[in-house]
Design brief:
With about 325 residues, this protein is an alpha/beta fold. The chain has a single domain (about 5-175, about 245-315), classed as Rossmann fold, CATH 3.40.50.1820. Helices cover about 35% and strands about 15% of the residues. It has twelve helices and eight strands. It has helices spanning about 90-95, 125-135, 150-160, 180-185, 190-200, 200-215, 220-230, 230-245, 250-255, 275-285, 300, 305-315; strands spanning about 40-50, 55-65, 75, 100-105, 140-145, 165-170, 260-265, 290-295. The protein has an eight-stranded mixed beta sheet with strand order 1-2-4-3-5-6-7-8, sandwiched between helices. Helix 1 (about 90-95) packs across helix 12, helix 2 packs across helix 3 (about 150-160) and helix 3 crosses helix 9. The longest helix is centred in the middle third of the chain and has 14 residues, at about 125-135. The chain is globular, with a radius of gyration of 18 Å.
């Protein structure tokens, strides 16, 4: 519960139904750009940044003529099974007011994929890599937006490096996987890899994504997501990350340490991490609010304009996480 037994505060209109080599480029426009959005005067620039000795691919979104200032930047982290392009629609909309940087974590998307023997793929290592990224991008501070596992990393970053965070927005951050049957199977030394390869086929990936994450995601977008995790190096990184997992104790401990104004966005129809988990985690954070929408696990893909509007108002200071 919140310190002092405080109840969670309402937040506006809360809807609650219960110098390294570059990577080979996939930097052509994402298939997500097929989704109709208003015409915006926004530039999109892809480049590589070295952080803790690992090359990370980022995309910077910014309105023409806009200059970046402290408090006007947003660092955005995608979920575990999607590259940074999954945030493209929301990033484009937020770029009307902010300098937005979408990031592929090490091992994912177009970033470098060191073998697990040389890179731990742990929450702590991802967090410290992002802390270095702030310096490489000349960001003294930034708002941080994260979905799924990206939200869990963002939460840990806010707990470990509060000096870097202005406001924090988490879209269904990844909860405790320790009791999920699939993860239990993947923990087995030999069988685990076989189970993972079986689950990682293109057809199964499409079926699982549409059934559990977002039924509105188009075939071309799902193919793009699949290709981002299709190489042996990408699968090894994903399996190592899943095996490291995230415990409920870590999530609760991090939540209690965050002092930034924070906002959770959760889909009432989330099949991956049900809304009950969202309520429990958000109540542990001293300055957090919870917005529940009639959507699934990937609200930013299902309703990018609605999510961008909520996030923009929050990051712009026009709504508080805790009143």
């Amino acid at each position: 519960m919140n310190p002092g037994g405080r109840a969670q505060a309402p937040i506006g209109d809360v809807s609650d139904p219960e110098a390294l080599p570059s990577a080979p480029g996939r930097d052509e426009p994402s298939a997500l750009s097929d989704v109709p959005l208003p015409a915006l005067d926004v530039t999109e620039r892809h480049h590589d940044v070295a952080a803790r000795g690992v090359r990370m691919r980022v995309t910077e979104w910014q309105r023409e003529g806009q200059t970046s200032t402290v408090g006007r930047a947003v660092l955005a982290l995608p979920g575990l099974f999607t590259p940074r392009t999954s945030l493209a629609n929301v990033a484009q909309l937020l770029a009307e007011r902010f300098r937005v940087v979408t990031v592929d974590l090490p091992g994912f998307g177009d970033s470098e994929k060191p073998p697990p023997s040389k890179y731990p793929y742990s929450l702590a290592e991802f967090c410290e890599g992002l802390a270095d990224l702030f310096g490489a991008l000349s960001l003294p501070r930034a708002h941080v937006l994260g979905h799924g596992f990206g939200g869990t990393v963002a939460l840990h970053l806010a707990a470990e490096h509060p000096e870097l965070i202005d406001r924090l927005c988490l879209i269904a951050p990844m909860g405790d996987l320790s009791e999920r049957p699939v993860r239990k199977a993947m923990l087995l030394p030999v069988v685990g890899g076989l189970v993972f390869r079986q689950l990682a086929g293109r057809t199964v990936f499409r079926t699982v994504y549409r059934s559990w994450i977002s039924g509105r995601t188009s075939g071309p977008v799902l193919d793009e997501y699949y290709q981002a995790m299709a190489t042996p190096a990408a699968r090894a990184a994903l399996l190592a990350t899943l095996r490291n997992g995230t415990s409920a104790q870590t999530l609760v401990a991090d939540s209690r340490r965050v002092r930034a104004q924070s906002l959770f966005i959760w889909g009432a129809n989330d099949k991956v991490f049900p809304i009950a988990e969202g309520r429990a985690i958000s109540r542990e954070m001293p300055h957090a609010g919870l917005e529940v929408l009639p959507l699934g696990h990937a609200p930013h893909e299902e309703a990018p304009e609605q999510i961008a509007s909520i996030v923009e108002r929050f990051f712009d200071g026009r709504r508080a996480g805790f009143a």
